[in-house]
Amino acid sequence: MPRALITGITGQDGLYLSELLLSKGYEVYGLMRGQNNPKRELLEQLVPDVHILTGDLTDLASLMRALAEARPDEFYNLGAISFVAYSWENAHLTTEVTGTGVLNALEAVRLHTLATGQDVRFYQASSSEMFGKVQTVPQNEDTLLWPRSPYGVAKVYGHYMTINFRESYGMHASSGVLFNHESPRRGPEFVTRKVSQAVARISLGLQDGLVLGNLEAQRDWGFAGDYVEAMWLMLQQDAADDYVISTGVTHTIRALLDAAFSTVGIDDWTGYVTQDPRFVRPAEVDLLVGDSTKARERLGWAPKVGFEELVRMMVESDLAEQRRISGRS
Ligand code: NAP
Ligand code: F7E
């Protein structure tokens, strides 16, 4: 039975990846931080077969302990401070967790292999935010990186450190440059879930309107369930490498609003949405659209869920949740 250790187990991707690996017969271990993590209950409810270990990406010894206990064949480093807007206000902390945390994870794996002789394949959760002020459209594995946020800068560090460990120590370390991927499990601070939750509440008469920032930004949004499959595929290859994972189709926030409001029968949303500079970022990533030709040709990976279906899935899930919470039909 193969064994996997996942950091960021309580996050959106950690949940989907653990379900995927459990369905493939893996023994799954998940690293959870904090002495009383509020997400523990949900984790135990959704994936009761995951073995929970405590630890933190900023604490090398805790990672070493987790590795000694899990003895994984595969290590998926999904843990990060992942909210871009927050990273300007907490730049140093973001650097420590999202950037230096990758070095800690790589070092822990390298030292574990030296001590035990066990080879561990490593996955790093890199991000399209690294492309930032995009130098080509669409973006692929050769596009120059030009991050626009402390989060993006930290991810660039982790990305190059992963490549460096592969080249310096021959580690099977792969980096997935994933474009935005969403789901009903997306945190409510991200724009897709903020919109799907608000649209559900507005249609049930629980909320009057929605306040957003920049409506012109464009994102290449896919479904998280599809993207974790790409992570797993990368670690099944003979040689480690880097891959862009995306749908190749981009939409504005306005198009997201069109799709979400139309799900509840509202064609003109302008009366519900206002803009506030509070949600506008100091530097924006205007146009993200990925080219996943390499992943398609070498991994045989392609996204299954399209934009409209994804948005409908999220709004319908939030409608069900809001009906349950409020008792309204
Ligand atoms: P998420 O829902 O925000 O989950 C982040 C996870 O990291 C949570 O489990 C969180 O734990 C954990 N974490 C935070 N600080 C930590 C620390 N100091 N030590 C250990 N773990 C820590 O993010 P996601 O959407 O699942 O994304 C997974 C990974 O992919 C992240 O690295 C993200 O940056 C990257 N990524 C995401 C996307 C996307 O569109 N979703 C795209 C590209 C790359 P708590 O629950 O305790 O906070
Ligand atoms: O913003 C605009 C905002 O916060 C998307 C993370 O998973 O994907 C995610 O980062 C866009 C931006 O995601 C609001 O300005 C407008 O242009 O949903 P988001 P993100 O910043 O793209 C990447 C790939 C990651 O790696 C990250 O970890 O939407 N926007 N108005 C808004 N965004 C938010 N959050 N809230 C608004 O009110």
Protein architecture, described:
With 329 residues, the protein is of the alpha/beta class. The protein folds into two domains: 204 residues, Rossmann fold (3-Layer(aba) Sandwich), CATH 3.40.50; 91 residues, UDP-galactose 4-epimerase, domain 1 (Alpha-Beta Complex), CATH 3.90.25.10. The protein has eleven helices and 13 strands. A seven-stranded parallel sheet has the order 3-2-1-4-5-6-11, with helices on both faces. Helix 5 packs parallel to helix 6, helix 7 runs parallel beside helix 9 and helix 7 packs across helix 11. The relative contact order is 0.13. Bound molecules: NADP nicotinamide-adenine-dinucleotide phosphate (NAP) and ligand F7E. The site of NADP nicotinamide-adenine-dinucleotide phosphate has 27 residues, from helix 1 and strand 5.
Portion in strands: 15-25%
The shape, in one word, is globular
Q: Evaluate the radius of gyration.
A: 20 Å
Chain-averaged pLDDT = 98
What's the CATH H-level superfamily name of the largest domain?
Answer: NAD(P)-binding Rossmann-like Domain
Describe this structure in a few short sentences:
By secondary structure, this protein is α/β, with parallel strands linked by helices.
Secondary structure elements and their pairing?
Layout (H helix, E strand, L loop, with lengths): L2 E5 L4 H12 L3 E6 L7 H7 L4 E4 L5 H11 L3 E4 L6 H6 L1 H26 L4 E7 L22 H20 L3 E6 L2 E2 L8 H13 L6 E3 L5 E2 L2 E2 H12 L6 E4 L5 E2 H11 L9 E3 L17 H7 L7 H20 L3
Parallel strand pairs: 1-2, 1-4, 2-3, 4-5, 5-6, 6-11, 7-10, 8-13
Antiparallel strand pairs: 9-12
Helix pairs in contact: 1-8, 3-5, 5-6, 7-9, 7-11, 9-11
Bound molecules: NADP nicotinamide-adenine-dinucleotide phosphate (NAP) and ligand F7E.
NADP nicotinamide-adenine-dinucleotide phosphate binds next to α1 and β5.
